[in-house]
Each structure stands twice: as structure tokens, then as C-alpha cells.
Amino acid sequence: MTKPGATDDAARSDAGAAGRGPAATDPFGSVGTQTLVRTSASVDPLSVLPERAFDNLLVVAARDHPAKLQRRLERAGRDLSNVGVVPVVPAAREYDGDLWTTDAVSPDDLTGLGMRFSDALGHVEPGTGWVFVDALGVLLMYAADARVCRWFQTVANRVRARDVRGVYCANAGAVASGTYEQLRSMCDAEYGAE
Length: 194
Fold this sequence. Notes:
Layout: E1 34-38, E2 57-61, H1 66-75, E3 83-87, E4 100-101, H2 110-121, E5 130-133, H3 136-142, H4 145-161, E6 165-170, H5 177-185, E7 189-192
Parallel strand pairs: 1-6, 1-7, 2-3, 2-5, 3-4, 5-6
Helix pairs in contact: 2-4
């Protein structure tokens, strides 16, 4: 990581969240819940997250470059020191902003992505942290569906085991229905933000 940020001070209580599926007051369930979010291309993926997610958030950014994420977070008044990014970019572009990041990885390099994700997950606090993948469809454009599903299962299991909420965005209209169902089956809940 280029800039590991301190996140302990910003943790908030998740009182009111119950169960392993979506609750009436919290569509993302309790600690450790893994949620697949149906999004469309017109929706800003970050907009689906609740306020408390930004207290300790790791973004696997396949849709947006870190510079674009930084601008969105700044406009929303978020503390950049609490957000880390694993940049997944088809063409390497430099980033020298205020978000802490891993080295960029190509979307067809799921092994490299897994390694960078593993390193970054160590900065996500059990019990209060969140992991967010902004566009599973991008990975599916560059790697075989079966490989992406295996990668996703590993990620979801690791996030769940760390007692961290996972939120994974996919455009159901742009992903093969069988693949979408397989991704959904590996999650505890599904949420629509279309």
C-alpha cells in the first residue's frame, strides 16, 4: 500500500442491523454479510453504500480510476484516509492522490488481483470494515466466467471470515444470467439499486 490509513477512530456502531440477510433498516445485514447489488451503468456504485461504510472501506475499483473515485468522495465530504483502493485498470495510469492504493492490476490478472486484495484486506477492520467491488462485469469482460466466479467465491469467503461486510456490484443485464445466478448463490443477500 502506498498510504495505509488509520481507521480505528472512525468506527461506528452497527446497532439495529440484524440477521444474515437484508433487514428493514439495513439492506446490507449484519457483520459478515455478503451482498450482491444489481446496478445499472447509470448508477454511481458508491451511492449504494450507507454512510458508515466510509469509516473503513476497501474498494476494488474495476469501473473507475482512483482519481475519479477521489473526486466523488471529496464531493460527498468523505474522509479519504479511511478509503483504500485496489485499482483494476485495463491500461496502467498513474495515480498520485490522497487515497491509499495498492499497485494497479490488469482485469485479466485474477491471480495478481487476489494478491493485492489479500494485502489490502489486512487494513480492513473486523466488525466495522467494508469491502466493495464496484463492477464485477468488468472482470467478466476480461476473464472467463468460471475464473471470475472462483475468484469471487474466494474473496467473499475471506471477507465473511474476517467479519467484514462485502458489497459487490453487477449489472444483471450485462452479465450472463447463469453467471449472475452463480454469483448471487455465493452471497447472503441481494439488493437492487437500478
